Amino acid sequence: MSAKIQDIIQNFLKTRKNKYQTYIPDNLFSQCPNCKKMVYKKKIDRNQGVCPDCGHHMRISNQQWMDILFDGETVQLLFEEYKTLDVLNFPGYKDKLDKLYGKNVNEGITTGKARLHGIPVLFGIMNTDFILGSMGSVLGERVARLFEKGKAQRLPVIIISRSGGARMQEGAVSLMQMNKTAAAIKRFSNAGNLYVSLLTNPTTGGVTASFAMLGDIIMAEPYALIGFAGPRVIEQTIKQKLPEGFQTSEFLQEKGFVDMICERQNLKDTLQKILKVHQY
Amino acid sequence: MDYTNKIKKTIKSLEHLSKNQGIDLNDEINSLEKKLADIYPEQDSHYQEEKKQHTPWERVKIARNLERPKPQDFIENMIKDFIPFHGDRLIGDDNAIMGGIGYLKDIPVTAIGTRRGKDLKGNMDSNFGMPHPEGYRKALRLARQAEKFRRPVIFFVDTPGAFCGLEAEERGMAEAIARNLFELSDLNVPTFTVITGEGGSGGALALSVSNKIYMMENAILSVISPEGCASIIFKDSARAEEAASSLRLTAFDLFELGIIDKIVEEDKDFESNLKPTLDRLEEMLYDDVFRFSFMDEEKMKDQRYNKYRSIGFFEAEKAQIPEKLLSAANGNNNGNMNGRNNFLNEVARFFGLK
C-alpha cells in the first residue's frame, strides 16, 4: 500500500518537475579566449565579433565579414566554380577534401565583387575552415584571377588574410602559387591600381610571404599573430622563450612592416576614406 | 622513343640557326620544348632508367650530403672573372647569400647564389645556408643592378629554407620574400635558376622567379621538409621517407608536373669530380641565355608570367542545368515544337552542354 502511494507521489513530482523545468539551450554564451570571461553570444555578434569587455577580435565567418564591410545586396561571388584536385595522390587528402566539400566549405578564400559605401571593389576573404586556410591551386587561381579582373576593370582589391601557410598536400604546386599571385599583383600594381591588405589573426607562412605582404596599404587587426615561421618553430630553432608581444601586429608596426592597426568597428569607414583619397 | 630524339635534334638545329643568324626563334623552340616535356617522360627509356636510379628519400639524402658541390663551387667553376659584392645597402650583409658579376663564357652576367658549408666551420660561417632578410634584399639589389646594365641573372639555389630566428622576423622575413617574388617577376632581363641541392620552400622560391628553372638530377624542391611533413600530417617524424615519396619533390616529379624546365644529369662521381657535369650545365645555360637575348623584352616577360600563371591543378565545374531544360533540349522531335527546340538548343549551347 505504501509502495503504491510512493509511486503516485513520485510520478506526481516528476510531472511537476517536467512542467516547471525551464529549457536553456546550449551555445548561448561563449568564452573570450583573451579575458576568459563568459560573454552572451548575441552581444559578441552585434559587436562584430569583438569581445565587449576586453576588445579581443575574435574569428568571424566570411558571411559576417561581408555583412560588416559591404552594402547590403551588392555582393556578387566570383570564381566559385573552381574545385580542389588531389594532384599528387597525397595519402589522406582526398578523404579530407570530400569531407570538407560535404560540409559545403568551398576552399580557403571567397572572392567577389561588392560595393563599400557605394564604391565598387573586388574582395577576397580568407577563412581557416578549409585545411587552416592553406594556399593551394584553387586559392592561388582565385587570387590571380581577382587581380587580373581588377586590372582589366580598374577596380581596387581588398583582401582579408587568415592562413596557416602553403598547402603541403599539393607539394611544390602550392609553392608556385606564391609566385603566381605575386606576379599577378605586380601587373595589377604597374597599372596604378590600389590593393589594400588586411591581416587578421593568424596570418603565417607562404601567404604572408606572398600576397598578404604586398598590399600598397597593409592594415592589421589588433593583437593578430602575423609572421613567416610559426612561433613554435622559432622557439625550437633559437632554444629561447620568445619575447612578449613577438609577432603581433603592434610588434610589426613598430618594426615597420604594417601601415596601420585598425579596429574592426572602424574598418568600413577607414576603408571608405582610403578609397576616396585614391579617387575611387 | 624515336621521335623524342628527332624533336631534340630539331631544337638543337633551331638553336644553331638562331645563334648563327641572330634571329629570334624562341617561340618555336619554347613550344617544341613544351611538347617534349609533355611526351618525354613516358616515351623515353633513358629518362625512366635515370628516374629509377634512386628513391626520393635517397635523393633527399644526396641533396643534403655535406660533400656535395655547393652553389659557391658552381659559381667558381662556371662564372669567369667573378667579382663578389656585399651588402643590402640597408642594414647589413648576409653570409648565406653571395652575388656578383662575371662572365658565362663570353656573356656578362650577374650570378647570385646561396652559400653552404661542407664542414661545421663553413656551415657556421654561412648560417647553414639559411638566409636572413638582408640576404634576399641583397639579391634583389644585385638583380636590379643587372637590369640597369642589361645583364641576365643566374641564381644558384641550395638552402634548407629561410632562417627562422628572432632577428629574421624582426627584420621582416615575410616581406623580404614577398618583395623578391613581386619585383623579380617583372625584371627586364632574362633570369635563370639552377637548383643545385636542397630547395627549401619560400626561402628558395625567392631566388627562383625565373624564365627557366633547371634542377640537378638529385636536387629537391619542396614546400616543407619531409621530416616536417611527416610530423604534421602523419604525426610521426620517423615517417619522413614516406613523406618524401608523397610530396613529389624530386627533379623528375617536378619536371612531370611542369614546374621545372630541364633536368641536368649528374655524373656518377659528381661529388669528387664536378668539372664534366658543370661543363654540361654551362653549355645548357649558355644556349638558353644566348637565345633569350634575342627575345623582345615584353615577350620575354610574358613567357615568365605565363610560366607561373599556368601552374595550378583544379576542376572548373560546369553550371548546374535543371533536368527539364536538359531533356527538352535533347529529346523532343515533335514537329510543332521546332521553335521551342531551337530556343532550348541555344540555351543548352550557352551553358556549354552542346
Describe the protein:
The complex is a heterodimer of chains A (280) and B (354). The model of chain A has no long low-confidence stretch (mean pLDDT 91). Chain A is an alpha/beta fold. Helices cover 39% and strands 18% of the residues of chain A. In chain A, helix 5 (137-153) runs parallel beside helix 6. In chain A, the strands form 2 sheets. A 7-stranded mixed sheet of chain A has the order 3-5-6-7-8-9-10, sandwiched between helices. A two-stranded antiparallel sheet of chain A has the order 1-2. Chain A has 2 domains: 1-54, no CATH class; 70-277, Alpha-Beta Complex (2-enoyl-CoA Hydratase, Chain A, domain 1). Chain A has 9 helices and 10 strands. Chain B is of the alpha/beta class. Chain B folds into 3 domains: 1-52; 61-309, 2-enoyl-CoA Hydratase, Chain A, domain 1 (Alpha-Beta Complex); 315-354, no CATH class. In chain B, 51% of the residues lie in helices and 15% in strands. Chain B contains 17 helices and 9 strands. Chain B has helices spanning 2-21, 26-43, 45-52, 56-64, 71-78, 120-125, 133-148, 166-170, 173-184, 201-205, 226-233, 240-247, 251-256, 275-292, 297-309, 323-330, 338-350, and strands at 79-85, 97-104, 107-114, 153-159, 191-200, 212-216, 220-222, 262-264, 314-316. Chain B starts with a helix and ends with a helix. Mean pLDDT of chain B is 88; it is low at 319-337. The chains are: A alpha/beta (280), B alpha/beta (354). Chains A and B meet through strand 4, helix 5, helix 6 and helix 7 of A and helix 8, helix 9, helix 10, helix 11 and helix 12 of B. Strand 4 of chain A pairs antiparallel with strand 9 of chain B, so a sheet runs across the interface.
